Amino acid sequence: MGSQSLKNVQKKFKLRGLTLTVSALKVVTEFINDFTDAEDEALELVLDEIERASLKTTILDKEAVEQILSPLTGTAADSSVDVITNAGNQSGLRIIDVFLVSKFSYDPIRKMFYEFTGKLPIHGEASAKAVLYRDRLQLLQQRISRDRHFARPVFDAEETRSGSCEMITIQSLIGCAGRRWIMGVISQLEDGNFFLEDLTAAIPIDLSQAISLNDIYFIVFLKV
Questions:
Q1: For labeling, which of 26, 61, 84, 211 is most exposed (least CB within 10 Å)?
Q2: CA 112 to CA 106: how far, in whole Å?
Q3: Dihedral sign, CA of 208, 209, 214, 216?
Q4: Is residue 208 a contact partner of residue 218, using CB atoms and an 8 Å limit?
């Protein structure tokens, strides 16, 4: 940061009645330099954080500035939970490394989540996209299946089944009669033909009577 930029930082602080020591000015400029092409916005963010802080003096030293900027830089001496709380109260900014966050996967057989301990590559393989959609579908299925309207009836009674919409897989439709509830993804496996598929099978569907909501969601009427 050049001398003109340093003068601009000092001027901004003086306009708000604040004075920076040499060491405090260095801390502020180092923080601003991390935001390439957005130095002015970063400086305004620093000034806003200082205004929200309870200051005992208008002369800011290095320790005071570091304490004020700690929620923004994530270098506070407190625990990570406290940093998140402070950042939330002060509308701070914190950068989190996605590779340091625990990843959980859902086991449809045991119906429980487990922590993924494998290596997370930066560049995904060819099968990564298919795995992404499969995991999303399984997450939606387990979440819906825990809803009381879609849960399996505790007692196999006609009164209980009348208010239940238990979902089954598409493959389980073979040999079934009556109304059944299924969940899947609408795919165009063939040109001009749409299918509803899950992790077990796929069936053709007719979208001529479907209701489109913002071209994303569909209410599909199936005749099986």
A1: 211
A2: 6
A3: negative
A4: no
Residue 155 has pLDDT above 70, yes or no: no
What pLDDT score does 91 carry? Answer: 46
Residue 80 amino acid letter? S
Q: How far is CA 96 from CA 75, 100, 102, 133, 155, in A?
A: 12, 8, 12, 24, 47
Using pLDDT thresholds of 50, 70 and 90, give the confidence band for residue 219: low
pLDDT digits (tens, 9 = 90+) for 34-67: 777 777 878 888 888 887 777 778 888 888 888 8
Q: Residue type at 221?
A: F
In Å, what is the CA distance from 49 to each residue of 60, 69, 72, 87? Answer: 13, 7, 9, 10
Residue 19: partners with Cβ closer than 8 Å, 6 or more residues away: 13, 58, 59, 60
pLDDT above 60: residue 81: no
